[in-house]
Write a structure and sequence with these properties.
Layout (H helix, E strand, L loop, with lengths): L16 H97 L1
């Protein structure tokens, strides 16, 4: 290919790919000079993210323990509720049996007095 077929219309970089190549080389030289600063910033961000991840891991562990505690308390409350429900059922049965026996004794007394 000739240089005319490789032309790119970009006024800030020139018309020839050779000029573009020179521009890219110049830019890459500037980037390599800035690489240590950029690496330092990336390293600082990585350390910051590592600290955040560790904090999140600790928080997740704490929440997992809290969930286990809540689960155990829920089982305990479930058994307590079961005992409460059984005792209430027993009280209700006792009340109905007392009402029934009182009613029967009243009927027997009325029938025997006649």
């Amino acid at each position: 290919m000739d240089s005319c077929a490789q032309r790119v219309a970009c006024p800030s970089r020139g018309f020839c790919n050779r000029l573009l190549g020179f521009y890219n080389q110049e830019k890459s030289i500037d980037m390599t000079a800035a690489q240590p600063d950029r690496l330092d910033r990336l390293e600082a961000l990585a350390e910051k993210n590592l600290i955040a991840i560790e904090k999140n891991s600790i928080a997740i562990d704490k929440l997992t323990k809290d969930i286990e505690t809540q689960r155990e308390e829920s089982k305990d409350l479930g058994s307590r509720f079961g005992y409460y429900q059984q005792s209430m059922q027993s009280v209700i049965n006792l009340a109905f049996s007392l009402i029934a026996s009182a009613t029967i004794s009243v009927f027997i007394t009325v029938v025997l007095k006649r």
